Amino acid sequence: xxxxxxxxxxxxxxxxxxxxxxxxxxxxxxxxxxxxxxxxxxxxxxxxxxxxxxxxxxxxxxxxxxxxxxxxxxxxxxxxxxxxxxxxxxxxxxxxxxxxxxxxxxxxxxxxxxxxxxxxxxxxxxxxxxxxxxxxxxxxxxxxxxxxxxxxxxxxxxxxxxxxxxxxxxxxxxxxxxxxxxxxxxxxxxxxxxxxxxxxxxxxxxxxxxxxxxxxxxxxxxxxxxxxxxxxxxxxxxxxxxxxxxxxx
Length: 249
Ligand code: PEP
Fold this sequence. Notes:
Layout: E1 5-9, H1 16-29, E2 36-40, H2 46-52, E3 59-60, H3 79-84, E4 89-92, H4 95-100, H5 105-117, E5 121-126, H6 130-134, H7 138-150, E6 161-165, H8 179-196, H9 199-204, E7 206-210, H10 215-222, E8 229-232, H11 239-248
Helix pairs in contact: 1-11, 5-7, 10-11
């Protein structure tokens, strides 16, 4: 059975003191839930965040990782470095990494492979731009993002994979895919995985929705049968909002 997951991507926000304060408020207010709850602070605060969350069920995950084992990659972090401090999940392919840091499908494929080889769970992000949706090309774009980065994986890799559908036009814009648009795309993603691998894999992979999820729209989006949770940006930076979204699942 696939897990319900609510993950907060903090992006380049919160220094160490702010990270500790937000985590302490979150821990105090965390509702009882069967969902996995995750937060992704910046690299520099991952270690302190793990310390802050000792004894908590909230998982600390990384926003990114490099594909190489080690070497001359200034500014980058390897799978081994993450594992060594106790991080076993990394977001890969966020649209901001694709747009601002030139991460292509080819690079992302290498990152996914490297993560999985190191037993790092991958939260793979993908989604269409506004023009793709307007021109009706959104299904093709999503299918090719999945194909280019994931279709050559071994079937066994899928137990360590989480998918996050994030239409670029809905990220940080306040505009959200309607619950029906989210469900339609999530069902398509599951169908695409079933065709490329098998139905069992498709039915067992968690597919999160991301794009301006807020306390006011989370219940409706999460109520859709193929939506297994959310990857939350802005609203994850406010403890009460993130807690309300966790309650919504
Ligand atoms: C994100 O960046 O992954 C995201 C979904 O951001 P927001 O919730 O702010 O749209």
